[in-house]
Amino acid sequence: MSKVIKVLGTGCPKCKSMTAVVSDVIAENNIDATIEKVEDIMEIMKYNVMTTPVLVIDDAITVKGRIPSKEEVLALLK
Fold first, then answer.
1. What whole-number distance in Å separates Cα of residue 38 and Cα of residue 36?
2. What CATH number corresponds to the domain at position 9?
3. Segment 20-42, tens digit of pLDDT
């Protein structure tokens, strides 16, 4: 089953870094997942979070306000 990953953020450098880390982990570990970049502030507000970037995996908020390590992302995806 493919995982649905969303990176919530308005396109700031931290958001771009988080997207890059997640993309690398998926590629390096051959994980079946799709990454969706959510930049619309109204869409982000629906998640009721105040700090970005936010990592959402299968509709569950897993990381917010910081950039996770590759190891952390990998653990969250397993």
1. 6
2. 3.40.30.10
3. 999 999 999 999 999 999 999 99
